[in-house]
Write a structure and sequence with these properties.
The chain contains four helices and 14 strands. The protein is an alpha+beta fold and 330 residues long. It folds into two domains: 66 residues; 232 residues. The two termini are 58 Å apart.
Length: 330
């Protein structure tokens, strides 16, 4: 009986030991993926910002500028691209909608971002664009990879349509979460005007005919939870200018927008709660289950060996009764 129990425990120990690396190196890449049908939105605000009035072409202080970012997964497009890419793909249709304190549109810039569902590496396919212009991303955007490392990453900037390093600046604590802090500085760069403008008749083509150009710089900051790779907070020190040409009435430059853009508080709280939940799920695949199965396998192996040793131990002979001596007579 002990021999049978020992063999059963040994088989279970081997199974758990074999399952441990499979959870980490086989199941994790296949289960930890961005869903193709994901939809999310984010609201950012720049309080006390400077904004250009396109009616008078004068910059003025406003109470706040609101930026609404939406990400919507296109499942049909992802499935179509997967057939040729040979890997799981996510297609995000993104929109950055900027509105002034009166709620009227300042600009809106659509994007199509195509990337690997697990690694977040860009996947180059037809339809990849920013504001209708075809682009080729060579870095991440919006999200870091699962199990983010303490190193610099290449990050795509939608304004300049270029990829530049975003630097790891250290580990911090943000609302109870350990996060990695990243920062990227984009120097003054000439960029195209958005194709959707608040004033009718002001188009990129019309502005180009006046000789006026648009320039942009920003300091981009992200606090990234490393297990999920999700930013839990972000802000940008953002500035745009119109320079030269006849549109400015002889002025050298005018500020189109300047402000410290930050995530709104309610969206920050929601993001932190969501990331804490997803972090537990990722840790189940990368740490809790692999190490737990390995520990259970070792425990079952030790128990199996102990039972085997007990089964091989010789039994002690039973004690025999000795009869009392009979009396001897002379």
């Amino acid at each position: 009986m002990r021999r049978t129990a020992s063999l059963v425990l040994l088989a279970c120990a081997v199974f758990c030991a074999a399952l441990s690396p499979l959870m980490r190196w086989y199941a994790f890449p296949r289960l930890a993926r961005i869903p193709a049908n994901q939809y999310q939105d984010m609201v950012l605000e720049a309080k006390g910002a400077t904004l250009l009035d396109y009616g008078t072409m004068r910059a003025k202080k406003v109470s706040k500028v609101t930026i609404v970012q939406t990400l919507k997964g296109d499942v049909a497009a992802a499935q179509r691209i997967e057939r040729t890419a040979g890997r799981p793909v996510v297609v995000w249709d993104c929109l950055s909608y900027v509105q002034g304190p009166d709620g009227k549109m300042v600009s809106k810039v659509p994007e199509r971002y195509i990337f690997d569902a697990h690694s977040q590496d860009p996947v180059h396919a037809t339809g990849e664009m920013v504001d209708g212009d075809p682009v080729r991303r060579d870095g991440i955007e919006f999200k870091w990879p699962f199990l983010t490392q303490k190193r610099d990453y290449e990050y795509f900037d939608a304004q300049t349509r270029t990829t530049n390093p975003i630097h790891y600046k250290g580990t911090r604590t943000f609302r109870g979460l350990k996060v990695y802090y990243f920062e990227q500085t984009v120097p003054w760069t000439k960029v195209p005007l958005p194709k959707s403008m608040p004033v009718k008749g002001i188009t990129p083509e019309a502005v180009a005919r006046t000789g006026t150009t648009r320039w942009y710089t920003t300091v981009r900051r992200f606090w990234v939870e490393p297990v999920t790779g999700a930013p839990v907070y972000g802000e940008e020190l953002h500035k745009e200018e119109l320079r030269g040409g006849t549109l400015l009435g002889g002025r050298d430059r005018v500020t189109a927008f300047a402000g410290d853009v930050k995530m709104r508080e309610d969206y920050t709280e929601h993001t932190v709660a969501l990331v804490k939940h997803n972090r537990t799920l990722v840790l189940m695949l990368t740490s809790y289950l692999p190490w737990g199965l390995l520990s259970l396998g070792l425990l079952l192996l030790a128990l199996s060996l102990w039972l085997e040793a007990r089964g091989r131990r010789p039994e002690e002979p039973a004690p025999t009764e000795t009869a009392a001596p009979e009396p001897v007579s002379a």
